[in-house]
Every structure is written in C-alpha cells, then in structure tokens.
Amino acid sequence: MEKRISGYTTLIGLLATPIKHTSSPKMHNEAFQYLGLDYAYLAFEVGNDGLEDAVKGLKAMQARGCNVSMPNKTVIHKYLDKLTPAAELAGAVNTVINDDGVLTGHITDGVGYMTSLKDAGFDIIGKKMTIVGAGGAATAICIQAALDGVSELSIFNQDDEFFARAEETVKKINEKTNCKAKLYRLEDKEALRREIADSVIFTNATGMGMKPYVGQTYIEKDMLRPDLIVSDVVYQPAKTRLLELAEEVGCKTINGLGMMLFQGAEAFKCWTGKEMPIEHMKEFLFGDNK
C-alpha cells in the first residue's frame, strides 16, 4: 500500500543550488516507500547566504537531518554541533543527522565513490589516480581513496580559493596515509597530460559538465588512452562531454550515478538505521535508463 504524508511523517531535506537536476528525492522517497518507512525527502534551493537560516529551520521543525551539496559542503560545519572523524578529516559535510536537537555533520561521498568503482568492477587499489577538483566531494574522494590503499594521487585544481584547501588535503594524505599525493595547478596542461599518462584512472570531481557547463570539459581528447578508466562524479547529464570523449577513445567509463546511489545509501542508514535496498534501487533508478 502506498504511503501518504501524515502528521507523523519525518522530514529529511537537501540543501543545495542548483537543485532542480537532483535525483536524491526520487531515490530516497522510493527507498522509504519500499521499506514502509514514514519519511519524506524534499529538495530546497539554498546557497551559502541562506544556509544558517535553513539549518535553524530544519532543527526547529525536528527534521531527522539533511543532505548538503554544492556550494554548501565546506560551509555548513559552522552551523552544526559536531562532526564525525571522516567529516573532520575531509573538511566537508554532505550529511547532517539530527539526534534530539544535536546536529552532527558526516561525509559519505568518499565511501560512495569508492563503493561505486568496486561495484562496477574497477580495482584501483595500489594504483595511481589523477583527479580534478578540491571541493567537498573531491576532498572526500581523495581522502577515502588514500585510506583504501590507492598508492599515488595527483590532484589538479584551478588557482582559486580552493587551492589552499587542496594543499591542506595533500598534507593530510601524506602525513596520515601511505598514499603519495601531489598537487598541481589545472592551468598546467602539460603536467595534467603527464600525470594522466601514468594513471589507471582519471576522475572529474567538479561541476564541469553539468549546468551551466554542459558540453564542456577540462580534458583534451589526446590526453586519454584506451586502457584508462575515466570517471565523472556528474550524473546529470548521465553522459558528460568528458565521458563522450573517453568513449570515443575506447576508455572504460563510469558516471556519477553509482556514487550518488552508494553515498545516498550511507546517509540513508545514518538517518533510519536501515540498509537501503540497493538492488531494488538500481532497478528503479537505472533499469529503464530513468
């Protein structure tokens, strides 16, 4: 029997901008209904300027928590009561859990990304990875990849306000893991070409490829080769320009849908104490190319 929203329904939100493209409400609400859980997941168009008020509102309404996406992942910690060790290490939050008015920030992006690679049959443990990005998701991916056993990480980012953040990430990885991490400016195309040539996987962990950057990529086609795994955290569109170029070259590719599912499953468990029905969700989300 289909569940209906009632006076007992518990709210979970998503705070981000842009927001209209997100598949998270579709995913979580289907999982709630499938398991018979009385929750509702709604997306709210909130950027940095309205974030503090939004967090206060969710707390006042006794929401169970929320997800956080761009541009709020590296800012929301200021309005929370505590962070999990993973979120503290990554310096970013994508999941907030409300336990009787105590707001805890957690990060599930890194685990979600690495699980999606494993689920797709890609093994990068003990190997080299090149990644573009230094925001919340990129940082979480780098930290988790290093903890899981990736041997080398070459991180590229534009020389902007996130570059200093990337320097801190590299320092943490080199001090706290056995992974060897290096940072380069994205403007250095020859370095990018060289590092990709030595890597088994290249990952775009930025918003490049989604609105308003659809059809754009940082990569030139001749930087790619057939035995390279090319990964994009963007899932809307499902096939970015980067992945189109990679397929033309013959690379193995993976988009951000798997990461979206598995990071969502981690958050789902934090809120409900239940395992997300992964196989059902795969069929629901991807079975008919939905």
TrEMBL record:
One of its GO terms (biological process) is aromatic amino acid family biosynthetic process. Keywords: Amino-acid biosynthesis, Aromatic amino acid biosynthesis, NADP, Oxidoreductase. Shikimate binds at residues 22-24, 69, 94, 109, 235, 263. Pathway: Aromatic compound metabolism; 3,4-dihydroxybenzoate biosynthesis; 3-dehydroquinate from D-quinate (NAD(+) route); Metabolic intermediate biosynthesis; chorismate biosynthesis; chorismate from D-erythrose 4-phosphate and phosphoenolpyruvate: step 4/7. Homodimer. Involved in the biosynthesis of the chorismate, which leads to the biosynthesis of aromatic amino acids. Catalyzes the reversible NADPH linked reduction of 3-dehydroshikimate (DHSA) to yield shikimate (SA). The lineage of its organism: Bacteria, Bacillati, Bacillota, Clostridia, Eubacteriales. This is Shikimate dehydrogenase (NADP(+)). Residues 256-283 form the SDH C-terminal domain. NCBIfam families: aroE (TIGR00507), PRK00258.2-1 (NF001313). It catalyses: L-quinate + NAD(+) = 3-dehydroquinate + NADH + H(+); shikimate + NADP(+) = 3-dehydroshikimate + NADPH + H(+); shikimate + NAD(+) = 3-dehydroshikimate + NADH + H(+). Belongs to the shikimate dehydrogenase family. Residues 14-96 form the Shikimate dehydrogenase substrate binding N-terminal domain. It holds the Pfam family Shikimate_dh_N. HAMAP family: Shikimate_DH_AroE (MF_00222). The keyword NADP applies. NADP(+) binds at residues 133-137, 233, 256. It comes from Clostridium sartagoforme. Its EC number is 1.1.1.25. It is an enzyme of class 1 (oxidoreductase). The keyword tRNA processing does not apply. GO terms for molecular function: NADP binding; quinate 3-dehydrogenase (NAD+) activity; shikimate 3-dehydrogenase (NAD+) activity; shikimate 3-dehydrogenase (NADP+) activity. The active site is at residue 73. Transmembrane segments: none annotated.
